[in-house]
Amino acid sequence: MKYQELWKEENESVRERFALSVERIGTMETEETVPSPFREYFRRTAAFIRDTAEVFALAESGELRRMSLEGLAEWNRRLYEDILPEHYAESYGNPAYAARCLGAEYGPLFSYLYAELRGQIVFAHECRLTEMTILNELFIEIYNQFEEEALPAPEQVREILFWFASDYLELTAEYRLRELVDPSLCFAREIVEGMDTEDLRYLYYYGEYVSEEELATARFLNSLPQETIGRMADTYTEGYRKGFEVMGRDLSVKGSVRLYYELGFERMVKKAMENFAALGLKPILCRCGVWSMDKNPGGKGGYHGASANKQYEYDHRYDHGVYFRKAYTDRKQEVLASAYETYKELCAAYAGPAAIETFGEAGFEPVNQPEAWALTEKQEKLALSSRSASMELMDRYIPEEETSFTIIAFPKPSIGADFEAIFAETIRVNTLDYELYKKVQQHIVDRLDRAEYVVVKGAGENHTDLRVSLHPLTDPARQSNFENCVADVNIPLGEVFTSPLLAGTGGVLEVSSVYIGDFQFKNLRMEFADGMVTSYSCDNFADAEHSRQLVKQMILKNHDTLPIGEFAIGTNTVAYAMARRYGILDRLPILIVEKTGPHFAVGDTCYSRSEDSAVYNPDGKELIARDNECSLLRKEDPSKAYFNCHTDITIPYPEIGEIYGVTAAGEKLPILADGRFVVPGTELLNEALEE
User: Fold this and answer.
1) One domain for residues 456 and 403
2) Is residue 346 part of a domain?
3) Cross-strand partners of 216
4) pLDDT bucket at 581, cuts 50 / 70 / 90
5) Among 331, 322, 293, which Cα is nearest to 166's?
């Protein structure tokens, strides 16, 4: 295993420290030097750490790869069982339980520590001994504090956690950047390249939680004809290539691509890696964040297994609030600046991400536990400014106008008894005729380009009523407001979109149900004035304020307000018909849902940070709607131009009463009426809706 060679020298340098830490932690299971109730916390956690040390020994010796499927499954269960839903009520990973046992002030701190220590599972499988050692030493340092005659103050414990997070930024933050751009980090690549479709043990080699879902997915994909796997991978990689072509960017000067996927899709990933190699791109298989500082509250940016417990992940989404302060963010920015310089050649070669998303799970309904860490208002503002600074730094080394991306989605077995039929239908949806839809969508673009603004009205109980202002076309023969988007970066095909003017854009947006990341929002309502969000709500919680906070966190990304960055009309009625036929509209990911009706995105425009790069439609007309009043501020103060988010919200066809453009002379230009397309030349789109 070549990946072990990467850490051999580093592991030897800390091996003695690691051995001493494990020995010391082992004594905690029988000592009585710490008072109750903390003694039980340290004992249980010490036992978990001992298990991870044993897994490290098995992984390093190669014995882990020689275990039976049953033996690997037993280890996986043993490492994750404490946070599984059936055990979560009495897990220290549950901040409410920790607070009940250890007190309201200590409990959340110890729950955070426990969650951070659970990263040892990954580090053990990857044989990264340094990370395991420093976590062990942190655990011992806090244990020692509780051996003293007087208990340390909660703030003293929090300071220890702060200095740990800050002091090790050179290790954690630098390594995370390297993970994102360095193809030589080959841990997961070796798993994929060496997989045997008849032997599912490879799923357990990652160290991720493996449920029956991943096993069933792998069995199904491994049973498909190679031709089918080829179609799936070819659509994915060709979309990536087309993204560079459509945007006029040079793929030949790039050398790497980062792949995201969920365990079970290895066979498709393996074929995709071969396709990317033919394009001159080395694959980067990067795991989703392990440290609290690397986790994204809105989703998982990297390969990952099943969620052992979504409530656990929800409870710990803001764990960085323990140590998040200006001194930390300033230091992290310095470390990142140095890291980017260290890896600048790898950054220059990086072409962008290619993601395989999944869908099918039932909607997750989180419980807001007051004991869980949450960012204060001051921390929220600091997080926004810190993210903005990080994005500006990244753009200097990985300019957005030089990269692209692609995203494709497939169902999981949890979608129900029709899984195999839905999977086949999804492949069909993902491979619809590019040229045909390009012609059909051009009729819509041509009509919209005559309009000064567009009106979107809901039907029935949907009270959407929005006016969308469009950029004036000074040369209609050469300019367009709407991009004719077929299958490139966002698969499947099927939308026309624009970045509206903010002035004059406003009204009410409603949708009965929509998925944003892992969350299903119910009866989402947002109001706008001059293109900016003025109010928002949903019905996810009985407490209206809790519901409002969920919208702010997951859709507004903790901004007080955001602009409308995109208005689009989805044309993939085949995808909608599939969803209706199988009753899965509420299970589809936003990637597909956005093609099944009009949608709006709040945040940055679709051309964020590359507004000055010309974009052309297939008919040769230039897309001029690449800016809005916010993004134009980049010419004066870039910190005010970007929000570093772009969240799509789709209204399905049945909830649409009408969409029409209005010319400067007041002429009405119908696009959709009663959920059907009415532009001449778009009759094809209604056929699927009439099934």
Assistant:
1) no
2) yes
3) none
4) very high
5) 331
Domain boundary among 167, 187, 203: 167
pLDDT band, very low/low/confident/very high, at 691 (cuts 50, 70, 90): confident
Choose the final residue of a domain: 101, 135, 167: 167
Instruction: Judge if the upstream peptide bond of residue 152 is cis by omega within 30 degrees of 0.
Output: no
Question: Do 232 and 376 sit in the same domain of this protein?
Answer: yes
Over range 174-193, report the average pLDDT: 97
Residue with tokens 């390594």: 175
Look at residue 431 and tell me if it is in a domain: no
Looking at the structure, tell me whether residues 569 and 669 fall in a common domain.
Answer: yes
Q: What is the pLDDT, as a whole number, of residue 487?
A: 63
Q: What is the pLDDT of residues 270-327, one digit of tens each?
A: 999 999 999 999 999 999 999 999 998 777 889 999 999 999 999 999 999 999 999 9
The model's confidence at residue 637, banded by pLDDT at 50, 70 and 90, is confident
Gap between the Cα atoms of 409 and 262, Å rounded: 11
In a domain, 401, yes or no: yes
- Predicted confidence at residue 640, as pLDDT, reads 85
Q: Is 602 left (phi over 0), alpha (psi -120 to 50) or beta?
A: beta
Residue 432 covered by a domain = no
Does this model's pTM top 0.90?
yes
d(CA 511, CA 484): 25
Per-residue DSSP letter, 89: G
Residue-wise pLDDT for 522-562, tens only, equals 999 999 999 999 999 999 999 999 999 999 989 999 999 99
The CA distance from 218 to 639, in Å, is 45
Same domain, 116 and 138: yes
CB under 8 Å to 317, separation ≥6 — which residues? 295, 297
Q: Which two tokens stand for residue 193?
A: 């390249």
pLDDT of 429 > 90? The answer is yes
Does residue 665 share a domain with residue 529? yes
Q: Verify that 444 and 307 share a domain, yes or no.
A: no
Q: Residue 1 — very low, low, confident or very high, per pLDDT cuts 50/70/90?
A: low
Secondary structure of 564-577 in HEC code, one letter for each residue: EEEEEEECCHHHHH
Q: How many residues does the chain have?
A: 691
C-alpha 676/C-alpha 659 separation (Å) is 10
Identify which of 484, 332, 435, 346 has the alpha carbon closest to the alpha carbon of residue 393.
332
Give the torsion sign (CA, 273, 278, 279, 284).
positive
Cross-strand pairs, 364: 519
Task: Spell 627-653 as b/e; 16+ CB within 10 A means b.
Answer: bbebbeebeeeeeebbbbbbbbbbbbb
CA 4 vs CA 126, 168, 282: distances in Å: 8, 22, 20
Q: Could you please report the per-residue DSSP string of 301-316?
A: -SBB---S-HHHHHHT
Same domain, 163 and 111: yes
Please count the other Cβ atoms lying within 10 Å of the Cβ belonging to residue 141. 14
Question: Does 219 share its domain with 153?
Answer: no
What gap in Å lies between CA 238 and CA 404, rounded to an integer? 12
Tokens standing for residue 212: 């029956």
Structural domain range at position 556: 440-689
Tokens of 167: 């002091």
Peptide bond into 283 cis (omega under 30): no
Count of structural domains, the chain: 3
E strand segments, 412-482: 453-458, 465-469, 479-480
